[in-house]
């Protein structure tokens, strides 16, 4: 089985100053993975954020979207250089993100992946260990045994 997390979809210390900048960054990366237009992905992610923030608290954001244009399940994981205001439910800034773009039929897979991330990241020591990772290999060593897509 191929590793889920690698240099193509893990980004450390992303230098963004705002929620919209992070969504732009994620749209660009997802476009490169999926061959779906960057603008289309940005529109989907932004529309989702307008409905309800995906800042779930404890410094974590999970922007996501579904469309028939995605031919499989795409995931991008990373940390930000600085904490950013994501209008999170607990009002705390975000420094860790998981972005998922998937086909509309992948809702169940999405829920399973998010449940697994929640289990891992709601553990304060595990979350801190991930935030302090200095390399993509470090992230991959932690997450690949725990989460396979």
SSE inventory with pairings:
Elements (H helix, E strand, L loop, with lengths): L9 E5 L4 H16 L3 H14 L3 E3 L2 E2 L2 E3 L7 E11 L9 E9 L4 H15 L2 H8 L4 H8 L6
Helix pairs in contact: 1-2
Write up what this structure looks like.
This protein is of the alpha/beta class. 41% of the residues lie in helices and 22% in strands. It has one domain: Mannitol-specific EII, Chain A (3-Layer(aba) Sandwich). It has five helices and six strands. Strands 1, 2, 3, 4, 5 and 6 form a six-stranded mixed β-sheet that branches. Helix 1 (19-34) crosses helix 2 (38-51). The chain is globular and about 35 Å long. The termini are close together. The model has no long low-confidence stretch (mean pLDDT 91).
Concise synopsis of the structure shown:
By secondary structure, this protein is of the alpha/beta class. The protein has 5 helices and 6 strands; from the N terminus they run E-H-H-E-E-E-E-E-H-H-H.
Defining traits:
149 residues; single chain; Mannitol-specific EII, Chain A; 5 helices
Uncertain segments of ≥5 residues (pLDDT<50)? none
**Share of helical residues:** 40-55%
Strand count, sense and barrel status of the largest sheet are: 6 strands, mixed
CA gyration radius, whole angstroms: 14 Å
CATH class: Alpha Beta
Q: Architecture in CATH?
A: 3-Layer(aba) Sandwich
Overall tally of domains: 1
How much strand? 15-25%
Number of helices: 5
Order of helices and strands: EHHEEEEEHHH
Mean pLDDT: 91
Helix-strand makeup class: alpha/beta
**CATH-assigned fold name:** Mannitol-specific EII, Chain A
Task: Give the total of beta strands.
Answer: 6
Q: What best-fitting shape do the alpha-carbon axes yield? A: globular
CATH homologous superfamily identity = Mannitol-specific EII, Chain A
Q: What gap, in angstroms, lies between the N and C termini?
A: 10 Å
